[in-house]
Structures are given as C-alpha cells and as structure tokens.
Amino acid sequence: MQAQRSLALLSLFAFSFLAWHSQIDTCNALSVREATIQDLQNAFQQNQLTSRQLVEFYLNEIKRLNPILKGVIEVNPDALYLADKADQEKKAKQPGSLSWLHGIPILLKDNISTKDKLNTTGGSLALLGSVVPRDAGVVTKLRKAGAIILGKASLSEWANFRSLTAPSGWSARGGQGKNPYVLSADPCGSSSGSAISVASNMVAVSLGTETDGSIICPSGFNGVVGIKPTVGLTGRGGVIPISPRQDTVGPICRTVSDAVTVLDAIVGFDYNDAQATRIASKYIPYGGYTQFLKLYSFCYSFSIDHQTVLIQNTTTTFLNFRQHGAILVDNLEIANINTILNSTLSGEATALLAEFKISLNSYLKELTASPVRSLAEVIAFNQKFSDVEMIKEFGQEIFLASEATNGIGTAEKKATWNLENLTRSGFEKLMIQNKLHALVTAGAGVAPVLAIGGFPGITVPAAYDSKGVPIGICFGGLRGSEPKLIEIAYGFEQATKSRKPPTFLP
Question: What digits encode the pLDDT tens for the residues 116-134?
Fold first, then answer.
C-alpha cells in the first residue's frame, strides 16, 4: 500500500510538474522554448525580443526547473548587465553586433574557466573560491562573438575522473543531475548539466568537454545534439584537464545548425594550447563549418558523391539510409575492438592516470588563488572533510591511483604506443581500406574508439526507448572529417526530425 501511495504521489508530482512546465512558453509574445539561434536572432532584428528579456526568461526557467534537474551549478550575477550591453550594441549597430552569437546566453561546463564573478570548480568543493588567471581560450572566442556567459553547468565531479562509484551527473557542488525525459534515468556524464540544461530549455546553447564519451553520451541520453571535435580543433587552455591527448571542447545544443554555429565560433588557435591548436588548424575549412549545413546533403549528396557509411551495432530504428542514396557496408569489424573498449587492456587507463596528475598539477599551480595546489592536496581536502555528507558519499579511487603514478615512464609510454597502434590497425585502417566516410552507431558505445584516436563525433537525437529515454545516433570519422560529419548529421536530423521536448516522467 505504501509503495502504491508513493507511486501515486510520484505520478501526481510528474503531472503537476508538466502542467506547470507547459504554462510558461513565451517571452514578449515570442515562443522562446525550443527556439534556435536563428529564431532568436530573427526576433532580435524584428524587435520582438531583447537579450535582457531572453536572459530573464532563462533565469526564471533555471529558478523553476533547476531545483529538480540540477543542470546548473551557478548563474552569472552579471548576466543581465551583459544582456543590456548587448542590446545597446545592437541598437547602435556596433561592429560585431550582427554575429550569430551576439546577445545569445550560453552555459559553460564548470571545468571551463571564466575570469569573472563565476567560480570554476569542476563541481568540487575543493576549488570553490579559487581564482583563475584568465578566461579559457574558448570563452575568449565566445565573448568576442558577443555571447553572454549565463553561468556554469553542472557535471560529473572532476569530469567523472574522481570516483568509480559516483553516478553520472553527480558532484559535491551541484548534487545529482536529472534526465529531463525520465527523471530516474541516467543523465550520463560528464557533461551532464550542459545537456540537461539545453534539453530542458534552461538555455539554448552550452559547452561541454570530452575525454572519452563525455559529450557524446549525455547528448544522446538527454535528446540533444553534441559535437566532439577533433582533438586540438578547439583550445583547451583554461580547461581543468584530464589528458592533453584526448581532451576536447565542444558545443551541446538542440539542433545541428546551432551546434555548428557555436563550433565555428570556438575553433582555432589558442595561445595557451598552442601546439595542439596549431596542428589541428589545418583542418578548419575556409569559410567555416556552417557552409556544410545543406538541406539536401543526406538525400542528395549520398547518391551523387556515393558516400559510404559503416553501420555497427545499430540497436534502434532510424531512417533507411539506402533509400536516400547511401552505400552501407555492414558486418565490418574494427580490429581488436574488444581490447579498445576495455580501458585496462588497451592502456587507456594507464595513460590517463599519469596524464591527469601531471596536467592537473600544472593547472592548479597556475591559478591566481586556490585552496589546493596539487592532486595530493585535493585528495587531502576530501579526506579532511570526509564528514561532510556531500563529500563522503563517494570515494576517490581514481584520484588515489593517479597520485600513485610517477610521470610518464616505461609503462605509460607502452600504453600510449599501444593506443596509437590500436588506432592505426583498427579504426583508421578500416575507414581507409573500405573508403568509408563515417561510422554510425546507436548510443555512445563507440566513444573509446573516437577518444583514443582524437577523432570527431556528432550525436543527433534518433529514437526513444520503451521508457521514453532518448537514444542518440553517433556519426564518427577520421581527424578533420567534421565537414562530412556535419553534412551527414544535418541531413539525418532534417530527414527524421526525431527530437521531442522533454517529458519529465518520473
């Protein structure tokens, strides 16, 4: 009887939540919910909407929804001031005020530094009150494009590199993030808050980061579009690191076009990530990435260009590619795929543990002010405050294993070599020999393949499981293949229109 009563109360809560949710859809007579960047810019130009009104709308949505969803850690106290500034610039028609991102609020995953009144903590209480020396490189580019930094999105603490037992979407600062489609479902991590916030219309645009699956997985589980760029295409300067080999920063939005618009704004050279961004800059096409948002690309380019797509482990129903001109090559297998998917066997775990300690210690030492200056001090902080419920709930096994490493020695070099060999003889060989343009998978299972090679991937909403949890379809390719992946992802999105607004089911 108690269980039935609890279920009834939970169902009533979900119904009330949905009813409340549906009542607030407009801002100055314009429907803001589910609006794209282009919708918002058109509204700005037609004087139907101001940046201030848009920021106020999102702040109200955060106030209303975030106590349940926990997608946002902190809002920018200067957000309304920045919105007023953007409105004044538009009114004066100042240079740059016609940029696609001008006046558009954006949430940043809380491992991306901002030199303002916001904290940058990776979701950890250990970094609360720390002061960064400068904006992250991608933030500098966003500000230049006129974007408004609305706040910081929640995440799996330390980008899911602290504990083996903590659930996805949990951090000491942010609490437990909730999937807005099915509140009890996995929001996935570590860029969970970025995906939750965009999916639930607490913002239209966010940034996430990925080392292995952290953009692809939460984007798929929360019914949004995520782009994991080629490593180095976007700068990592000012981002709390895990691995310089695998870390990348990418957009999470509700549409492919929005994500690509943001990608265009953040790619390119980063002085504080000079080597990687200089090498990857050769992949940036003249004229940017939005030129590959072609309405006919899925139905037309496949048949004309004879694009070839590999389908691997597809478990959901989506548009029949063959009917739209694609050449499908099935029953192919990436060499040593079981080894690649096992981080211990592949060497990925060995490499990441050593790289994390080195990279994090370097990041912490560069902070202008910080309660902690090394991984060892972060571990000590967690142990000292282990009586605090939020901290003691989960362990720090990964931290301890990382702290036990001693630089890049023989074992780490062997692990890195093994990862490179697995990539060359596996994914790269398969793609090149079969003249494939993309790998297509349902879900985020392909993430380690893309992660260890620094390869790009785009996740697009595709379907929903029996409980109503979204399933994303992931298009992956070789380094620098973003233009082709964008064509394919955009074509798929426009042909299927699979995304539905969140349902907030219990």
Answer: 999 999 999 999 999 999 9
In this prediction the pTM is 0.92
Q: Quick count: other Cβ atoms within 10 Å of Cβ 395?
A: 15
CA-to-CA dists, residue 36 to 33, 41, 253, 387, angstroms: 9, 9, 9, 45
Report the Cα 152 to chain-centroid distance in Å: 13
At 326-347, the pLDDT tens digits run: 777 877 899 999 999 999 999 9
- Asked whether residue 389 is domain-assigned, the answer is no
Cα–Cα distance measured from residue 442 to residue 313, given in angstroms and rounded to the nearest whole number: 7
- Kindly state whether residue 403 falls inside one of the protein's structural domains: no
449, pLDDT greater than 70: yes
> How many domains does one find in the chain?
1
Rg (CA), the chain: 22
Record the tokens describing residue 172, joined without a space: 């000491």
Give the CATH number, domain containing residue 70.
Answer: 3.90.1300.10
Does residue 70 lie in a domain region?
A: yes
Average pLDDT over residues 359-374: 98
Maximum CA pair distance of the chain? 66
Strands (E) in 158-221, as ranges, are 170-171, 175-176, 205-210
Name beta bridge partners: 309.
328, 438
226, 458 Cβ separation under 8 angstroms: yes
Which of helix, strand or coil describes residue 459? strand
Burial (CB count within 10 angstroms: exposed 0-12, middle 13-18, buried 19+), residue 482 = buried
Give pLDDT tens digits for 99-115.
Answer: 999 999 999 999 999 99
Active site residues: 109, 190, 214
